[in-house]
Amino acid sequence: MVAVIQRHARYRFRGLSFHPSLPRLAVAGARLSLYELDLDVLLGERQRSTATRTVHYVNAKVVLVGDTGVGKTGLSLVLSGRPFQATDSTAGRQVLVLGNAEDELPGGRRRTREALLWDLAGQPGYRVIHQLHLSEVAVALVVFDARSETDPLAGVAHWDRALRAAHRRQGDEAVPLTKLLVSARADRGGVSVSKEHLIR
Q: Which residue segments constitute the domains of the chain, with CATH numbers given?
């Protein structure tokens, strides 16, 4: 933050826009207000003021994906430090905090780091919507039900394709993506999928 511009107005604020090359600011409300910014004064105020400190914020996005009923929500509770409890299938999505930390940066600046866990519902009706939330994913946990008698990996191929497509769309701006295949409910009866099947 360079400066705080105090603006006392009776009108509702709707947006602002800086001039591309001049120190001018337009503020839209019930009427348009134009400000000529004196950068020497603003930057000088910043150097004299020690009360305002800039805090940088970064986060890592972790997603839990897979078919409905495979145990993603139970896993998300445990991963975020909550006790396990039986849950119904998630509708929509839940975003939980996995952890956070604060670092001291050079120049007296601070940085807050946060890891966010996105538990995305697995019902077929949500698949298209959830593909819109797969940008900027750092870690994807693709969960399958190890006890399924039909096809335990039924949703894995879909989510793998969706993650690849989202990563490709970001091009050079894509963050490195780590995908982990997670066998849920393996505590009873083990994993029914052979290693050969997993490798395919």
A: 15-48 (no CATH), 55-199 (3.40.50.300)
